[in-house]
Amino acid sequence: MKLPTFLPMFFCRASLLFALGGLVIACQEDSSTTSASAYLGGEIINPKDRTVYITTTDARAIDTLTLDDRNRFLYKFDSLVPGLYSFRLSAADGLEHQIVLVEPNDSIMLRLNTLEFDESLVYTGKGAKKNNYLINLFLESEQDDKKVLGFSQLSPKAFEAHVDSMKALKLKALKKFSSENTVSKRFINLIETNINYDYYLSKEVYPFVNYSSSERNIIKSLPESFYAYRTDIDYSIQNVRDYFPYYPFLKHHFENLALTEHFKTSNDSILNRKCLGYNLTRLKLIDSLVKNDDMKNQLLINTAIEFISDNKNVKDYDSLLVSFKAKSTDRYHTDYLNNIVASLKVLKPGNKLPKLYVYDIDNNTHTLNQLVKNKPTVMYFWRQSYLRHYQDSHKKIEELKVKYPEINFVALNINETSSQAWKDHLKQYKYPTKSEYLFVDPKKAKQDLAIYPINKVILLDNQGKIINAQTNMFSLHFEKQLLEALNQ
């Protein structure tokens, strides 16, 4: 069984939360099944779900376990295929997961608190050191993101010197760790690939995060050797869709390539993510360079959804669909995109929302339109697994409520779990429940309202008519939209 996933791309790195995945070719010593066994187990503090899913890193299910009365689990790999695996605490909320490198005779135990998922994770037992190294590398990379953003305001030459130095320090640390511990070639190749693609990612995002000039001028100013590493890129490494630096690298790499091509045939000087031609070029480049179907299909669907989420011109959707269908071999993605486009065409300004039902905290049922209450209304969405978004969005709404008391703010949970889990989560984080609702049929709601990405917001007038079905509360222009809604 394969659990279908779409990778949300809110930010260049943090969007993937802690999505480290498998690198079967680059970190492989022997991918064949062995007669050796291995164990993976641990304790989950504050579990939101009693089930633990053991999967491959491309989301193929291995086994499903239930936490015992002490919130512990244990799994035995009888015929181990050495490599990276993922343990997920909820199949529906697939983002809350972690990876572990499992090799013959390992006995790896973990301990984590779901309230501080990444920071609290610690491994013990045989095989623990290499996995703690992976965790620390990720946490270090999160801190490096801030440094890279600061360096990105420097000249290309100065920026390159800084990121070269960061890469060299990481490789030096790996050499020291390898000399002091017994590690496999698989582990060394994995870390080296992580470091390299993290470095490549920093170089690819530079034109987009340097604010001193237009993207056209920045690209023109780059030294000829700035992207010399591109001759070493492997576009189709097997089973790496969730490997942390690899997928975001490919995303920004294709953005960069497409923008360079777009500038050759247009007079544009800046990146316009809403531009149809630029996005058609992205799809074309992905199709021509990525040979692995799974990776290519994932890049194609995320590019397509990102475009229709940014672009409010529904007339462009059909052109994008034609290009997408000619390139993707995934029927599920095609059906999904068709449904999203059809839903967005219905969600035009001036229309009312589809008839969808929600529960309030007391289990009473309402339609979405009944929540408007003769006020301009902001409807925003959340789910338990996107904890950071849940906290940030609710904090932002509390601020907006003070500034705009005439506006009605409605929180809609899209989890396909029990209503009790929703209530427990609200209670745990102590947010007011008066304007919190849970969809009766989350799957239908996500399709009919085209809820992707999760930070999408729907703005309605006081009659429940759509003003904007694809806005964002974190946008610089959001408060201007609220004022316009009040003045209608």
Succession of helices and strands: EEEEEEEHEHHHHHHHHHEEEHEHEHEEH
How does the major sheet shape up? 7 strands, mixed
Structural class: alpha+beta
Q: Beta-strand level of the residues, as a percent range?
A: 15-25%
Describe the structure.
The structure is a single chain. The chain is 43% helix and 17% strand. It is α+β, with helices and mostly antiparallel strands. The strands form 3 sheets. A 7-stranded mixed β-sheet has the order 10-9-13-12-11-14-15, covered by helices on one side. α11 (387-403) links the parallel β11 (377-382) and β12. α7 runs parallel beside α9 (315-327) and α8 (293-310) runs antiparallel to α9 (315-327). The longest helix has 25 residues, at 156-180. The chain is globular.
